[in-house]
Design goal:
Layout (H helix, E strand, L loop, with lengths): L4 E8 L3 E9 L4 E10 L2 E4 L2 E4 L1 H18 L6 E6 L4 E4 L20 H6 L4 H8 L8 H10 L3 H5 L2 E4 H10 L4 E2 H4 L5 E2 L4 E2 L1 H6 L10 E2 L3 E5 L2 H7 L6 E4 L4 H7 L8 E6 L2 E8 L6 H6 L2 E4 L5 E8 L2 H12 L6 H10 L20 H11 L8 H26 L13 E5 L6 H11 L2 E4 L4 H13 L6 H9 L5 E3 L7 H12 L1
Parallel strand pairs: 1-6, 9-12, 15-19, 19-20
Antiparallel strand pairs: 1-2, 2-3, 4-5, 7-8, 10-11, 13-14, 15-16, 16-18, 17-18, 20-21
Helix pairs in contact: 10-17, 13-15, 15-16, 15-19, 17-18
Length: about 500
């Protein structure tokens, strides 16, 4: 393993962002948070936007914070963001408008509109991506349907992390893992699906060169370096710039028998494969093939994760009741099990005005007694999510079975990372519902993945496998053994009826 080095990681999430310092001492990473800031949408005239210029200012503030504290030169800068969202630039390189938030209502009904132009089977055979109304392809199709003039003015489309790569270096590229969330790549050869885009009357020449994780985009622009006070040149490295891609890169022990679970507002659950799995069964189950590090594919399912619980907590706060997370988990643990179950991915929960009322209405609509107390609501959210995980694990084993019926590897460990990995009750419910061991941590897997890929790109680490071993040496993990499955099997049958 290589010599010591300092790397900077910017992790821009849908609710907050951070700039962190990663010190590599030749054996392990030590991480220090330099700057934290809020992120979220701003609504103007019924449209939800991202405050991209504020994010840019906060990113530079994090760089300046490092420069004010440390004299040592940086060995690299890398960043990740959420997927699917993008900005459009004119021929002079200027941003045409604020990027629109993926939850904006402009995509309502657009998936069905897409199927009127190209079939579900054709789109999936080309892209290998599951169908979500927030996908970049669907967002662009909504712009075309609404005759948005920006689409015809655009000379370049850059996904969110690539916007910051451009402003940091002056180079316009498309990092592979983030581009793979767009539903606009050919999964087989990892190139832009220009023939499919033409079918939708979308631009075909505005997409930049695709680069793989671990590519040096370029040096930090002198003007930016001077502004933030960095004294030495520093390379900007395209890591796995989709946050889930970096989170999966940062999972210790991930192997052919492991399921990864990136747990947060969204849950991303899947396995690493050598090639995309694109067949009728994957289409039926609505799984997705996204890009990973080291030439891998992340076969996964997007699941509405802790969103239901987060929004319920927000509703209680609006009503004047503030609960800490430990208090909510304690109340859930004390509540009776399996009073009601919900499908977290039901359309009811996508954009509710009052999540608690929405859960109550869903339960009544499906013939169940709604959870009433705070503890009952929290337990309903967590048990339902664990049951959804069970469905996904079963589906993954189905998809890994060969065409001639030979089973793939038994998936006997679920490796949970991200902020949700700290939810001990959900981890235990997941082990119980799935009857598989759960290993939680690191919570900072995405950040560690960003740091690790920079270290690989600069030669401080020899490979992704070596990097994962270094991450294992850097952070603690917690193990949850499955308990007796009493009640879970019956609850799962109830859950399956909700899906039907």
């Amino acid at each position: 393993m290589g010599a010591t080095a300092n790397f900077l990681a910017a992790d821009l999430g849908a609710s907050n962002g951070r700039v962190l310092l990663g010190r590599w001492n030749g054996e392990r990473f030590d991480v220090e948070e330099l700057h934290r800031f809020a992120n979220g949408p701003t609504t103007v005239l019924d449209r939800m936007y991202w405050n991209v210029l504020t994010l840019w200012s906060e990113l530079k503030h994090g760089l300046a914070r490092y420069a004010s504290l440390y004299n040592a030169p940086l060995a690299g800068i890398g960043l990740d963001t959420w997927g699917v969202d993008y900005g459009l630039f004119d021929k002079t390189g200027r941003l045409l408008g604020n990027p629109v938030h993926y939850r904006d209502a402009r995509t309502n009904g657009m998936v069905e509109h897409a199927f009127g132009i190209a079939s579900r089977e054709e789109i999936f055979a080309t892209t290998g991506l599951q169908f979500l109304q927030l996908n970049t392809l669907i967002q662009l199709l909504s712009m075309r349907a609404q005759q948005d003039p920006q689409l015809d003015m655009a000379a370049r489309l850059l996904m969110m992390p690539d916007i910051f790569h451009y402003w940091l270096t002056g180079e316009q590229v498309a990092e592979y893992t983030i581009a793979s969330t767009s539903q606009m790549l050919r999964a087989a050869d990892r190139t832009w699906a220009r023939d499919l885009l033409a079918r939708f009357a979308l631009p075909t020449a505005i997409y930049p060169e695709i680069v793989m994780p671990g590519t040096v985009v370029g040096p930090l622009l002198d003007a930016v370096r001077t502004e933030v006070g960095l004294r030495a040149p520093v390379p900007v490295i395209a890591v796995a710039s989709h946050d889930t891609g970096s989170a999966v890169a940062g999972i210790p022990g991930l192997d052919a028998h492991s399921v990864y679970l990136s747990s947060g507002t969204w849950s991303l659950m899947g396995v690493e494969t050598a090639q995309p799995i694109i067949n009728a069964r994957a289409l039926e189950l609505n799984f997705t093939n996204e890009g990973g590090v080291g030439g891998t594919i992340r076969l996964l399912k997007n699941i509405t994760g802790l969103w239901l619980l987060q929004e319920s907590r927000r509703q209680w706060e609006r009503e004047g009741e503030s609960y800490s997370w430990p208090a909510l988990l304690a109340a859930a643990e004390a509540a009776p099990p399996f009073k009601a179950v919900v499908n977290p991915d039901a359309p009811d929960f996508f954009e509710p005005s009052n999540m608690v009322d929405t859960i109550h209405a869903y339960c009544r609509r499906t013939g169940q007694t709604p959870p009433e107390t705070v503890g009952e609501v929290v337990r309903c959210c967590l048990e339902s999510l664990a049951l959804r995980y069970r469905w996904v694990v079963n589906a993954l084993e189905d998809l890994l079975t060969s065409a001639d019926g030979i089973p793939g590897p038994r998936l006997d460990v679920i490796r949970v990372v991200g902020g949700g990995s700290q939810n001990w009750l959900l981890n235990q419910f997941t082990a119980d519902a799935c009857q598989r061991a759960v290993v939680s941590g690191p919570a900072e897997a995405a950040t560690l993945g960003v740091l690790m890929m920079q270290a690989v790109a600069t030669g401080h680490l020899g490979s992704v496998a070596e990097g994962r071993a270094a991450i294992a040496a850097s952070v603690p993990q917690e193990h949850f053994a499955p308990r007796a499955a009493a009640g879970w099997d019956d609850a799962y049958e109830r859950f399956l009826r909700l899906l039907d």
